[in-house]
Amino acid sequence: TPLITTVLSLSLSLCPSLSPLSPLPPLFFWVFCRLSKMACQGLQKGETLASLKRETETLKKKLEEERGKLNDVELHQVAEKAEAVGALSIKTKRVLKGHGNKVLCMDWCKDKRRMVSSSQDGKVIVWDAFTLNKEHGLSLPCTWVMACAYAPSGTAVACGGLDNKCSVVPLSLDKNENLAAKKKSVAMHTNYVSGCTFTNSDMQLLTSSGDGTCALWDVESGQLLQSFHGHTADVLSLDLAPSETGNTFVSGGSDKKANVWDMRSGQNIQSFESHESDINCVKYYPSGDAFASASDDSTCRFYDLRADREVAVYQKDSIIFGASTVDFSMSGRLLFAGYNDYTINVWDVLKGNRLSILFGHENRISRVRLSPDGTALCSASWDNTLRIWA
């Protein structure tokens, strides 16, 4: 019934990180039992859906208080004795021109040389980052191609956007081949596709959408393998856990939430709600034990999954524009964040201070991605170009 669905979803949102393998804190256990009882028995005498919602809000506050008691020390305090990062000298090494409108997304190939980008002009371009040659070009039947990703093998790319679809395109050595004829529609949402990534094989594709869901698809058959429901507004970004055996991913959306999901069960296993506006991007820490987020509230935040809480906020009073994208250095010490004021800020993850500002783009930054070997950073922008920094 709608009541059971509502109460169970409230139960999951209040206790997202409960694990059957770990002992339950008494308050969490009581909350879970109370919500389960509400779901199974339905409305009792004198109860209304509004009163139950008020009760869940009270329980939610109690849980936050319990979580706050464990918040004993800040990350920057722990890192006071850590050695400071030396002066950074990061400059533009390449400017890639070829798109006729805003570049909305890009991704590196694992060969550390090739990249794919997508644009509001409806085109997807595969680049050689060394020579700046365009190796492949593909025109999609819609504008605003908001998502693109390279397959792990390097032999295919995925792309999607305002047509609500995500398609996979196999690449070949023949640069004159008609890629559009080989394009295969894999994913279908009921609203725009905001993000896509392959899992650790070419055979599965993970997508996020403006319909408020994420989904896992079989590339060969196009079948939906798992859907992920928990956001209450557009999902704007997702990122797969870096471990090859990892079965989790994180998503962020317009509901100001960042959710961690189990791909096997489809369950939301952790949830974080400290941002004050849309979360535009989420990105795992290299170890997979934490992740960062970028938001329209002008901050980037760092969440530790083991501590189940936010441990750092990267912000300055002078930064008044939204943060649109983030990525980590190979070591995890640096956080690269792109903003709507056309700049890329480099943050010290441990100490929380800004180390450098990268200037060069002439419009907002839509994407920053570190190369697989960690030697270069690529940024995509609404100024129709991509830049490679080193």
Automatic annotation (TrEMBL):
SMART domains (UniProt xref): WD40
Listed InterPro entries: G-protein_beta_1-5, WD40/YVTN_repeat-like_dom_sf, WD40_G-protein_beta-like, WD40_PAC1, WD40_repeat_CS, WD40_repeat_dom_sf, WD40_rpt
Keywords attached to this entry: Repeat, Signal, Transducer, WD repeat
Source domain of life: Eukaryota
Regions that span the bilayer: none
GO biological process, one term: signal transduction
Residue ranges of WD repeats: 96-128, 186-227, 228-271, 272-313, 325-357, 358-390
Signal peptide: 1-20
SUPFAM superfamilies found in the cross-reference section: WD40 repeat-like
Assembly and interaction partners: May interact with RGS9; this interaction stabilizes both proteins and increases RGS9 GTPase-activating protein (GAP) activity, hence accelerating the deactivation of D(2) dopamine receptor-mediated signaling.
PANTHER family on file: GUANINE NUCLEOTIDE-BINDING PROTEIN BETA G PROTEIN BETA (PTHR19850)
Family: Belongs to the WD repeat G protein beta family.
Record-given protein name: Guanine nucleotide binding protein (G protein), beta 5b
Organism, as annotated: Sparus aurata
The organism's taxonomic lineage, starting at the top: Eukaryota, Metazoa, Chordata, Craniata, Vertebrata
Gene: GNB5
